[in-house]
């Protein structure tokens, strides 16, 4: 797919592009600017992304290991006890039929052993021999049973979680090559915004300044309190200065408001002043169509990105799930996020030639998706009860029983199923 883009000019945008194309385009732009690779100790890799395939240094297991407590025996019984082997030791071989060593779970099976007899299925004779009948299936793990040395276990682009860290350790690895988390910043635009207290006298409370950083962190970005600026004064010089300062340290700068072309919407002229080029400029999606992603090339030649989120709060979140999530995945070297499907439990209207992202909750019993109330572009009440956005394709409506894609909100496991 081509990632050729147009320069930011400050003029009215071209017709909006399709929602699926927009996702693909920003993901490709992110991949093209994927963040540098560094080796990190295993304990410091949680939440990062594998920058190279995970391969094992040895067979797994590296040697035959007993899967039970019992007796490693050679030949037919009864067996004479000639020793003991515990986990972490290297036993001498069993060289004579009729001999056995006591063995612990996880211990190395001695060379020459023909079976392992479970301790609970064995008996000791009066002359201190061991009797019993080993099971027909081996009671030890063979070398390479899980993986062979050099085998690729996980591809590059895999998100690293505790399970991946444990697997890497079992492979004998001490470090992993990873892509660092994208550094993000947020610029809040709008003189009408209050940062404390209740709204009134023509001014509204800023809901995005406190919440967007949390969304960004759940998508894997690094963003702290010092990375949030605003409200930025509604002048072009102030917007240019704020963007330039944020781009000095951030890989991704999100802005709120100013994505249209009104009298105090300065984002497009500011991007033009920074010689930015658009990756996406408006998307055929409702709500939130005046969203954008632009690319700015730094003095070091590396691309940084500006994601323009609409000022209406729910529209801003639509922009986050539509453009920022795939962009961040690309920067991390991850695949374009796949969308699960849900069954609609109620009808969801279409939006003509636009994709409709409809907030839904998902019933935890039958798994059906149901639209929530209070879903205006300026509202957040519905979002606070939702599991994600049902995707209603252009020219269609969501009928009860239909299977449709779901854009899940980046929530903790088990949340918002109600």
Automatic annotation (TrEMBL):
Biological process annotations from GO: Mo-molybdopterin cofactor biosynthetic process
Domain MoaB/Mog: from-to ranges: 185-330
Keyword Cell membrane: no
Keywords on record: Magnesium, Metal-binding, Molybdenum, Molybdenum cofactor biosynthesis, Transferase
Catalytic activity: adenylyl-molybdopterin + molybdate = Mo-molybdopterin + AMP + H(+)
Cofactor needs: Mg(2+)
Entry EC no(s): 2.10.1.1
Biased composition (Basic and acidic residues): 121-130
An annotated GO cellular component: cytosol
Homology family: Belongs to the MoeA family.
Function description: Catalyzes the insertion of molybdate into adenylated molybdopterin with the concomitant release of AMP.
Official protein name in the record: Molybdopterin molybdenumtransferase
UniProt source species: Micromonospora krabiensis
